[in-house]
Amino acid sequence: MSKGSTRRRRKHARALRKEPTPGEQRLWFHLRNRSFHGAKFRRQYPIGPYIADFCCWEKKLIIEVDGDSHAGKEDQDRERQDWITSRGYRVIRFRESEVAGDLQAVLASIWCALEE
């Protein structure tokens, strides 16, 4: 990876942090500042050529919140997830509608993943 591409990815991650989706914003409220069971999460975290919505580096856990922009991009998402898991991370995905409709179930799933 070149320094230029790393710089661009970081700049893109910063821009994504400034404009979160409603689901990302809602979930971040519960994950930030080690407030979720003491786990340290980072949002819009660059990992190799990708940017993860949320990353708990200590537990090697990635959380993705998929909105409408993911429709029709299943192959790209699968390729991305395969690359990330090949680096030792676990990935859990939620639909934007799940975060909006049943946040407690989403948080329970995240808690279970942290405990694994």
Short structural description:
The chain has a single domain (3-115), classed as VSR Endonuclease (Endonuclease, Chain A, 3-Layer(aba) Sandwich), CATH 3.40.960.
**What do the pLDDT scores average to?**
88
The overall number of domains is 1
CATH architecture assignment? 3-Layer(aba) Sandwich
Q: What shape does the CA trace take? A: globular
Could you name the CATH homologous superfamily? Answer: VSR Endonuclease
Low-confidence stretches: none
What would the CATH topology be? Endonuclease, Chain A
- What would you call the structural class? alpha+beta
Q: How do the helices and strands follow one another from N- to C-terminus?
A: HHEEEHEHH
Alpha carbon gap, first and last residue:
32 Å
Q: What is the number of beta strands? A: 4
Count of helical regions: 5
The percent range for strand residues is 15-25%
Question: Helical amount among residues, as a percent range?
Answer: 40-55%
Largest sheet: 4 strands, mixed
* Order of neighbouring strands in the sheet with most strands: 1-2-3-4
Compute the gyration radius: what is it?
Answer: 14 Å
What is the CATH class designation?
Alpha Beta
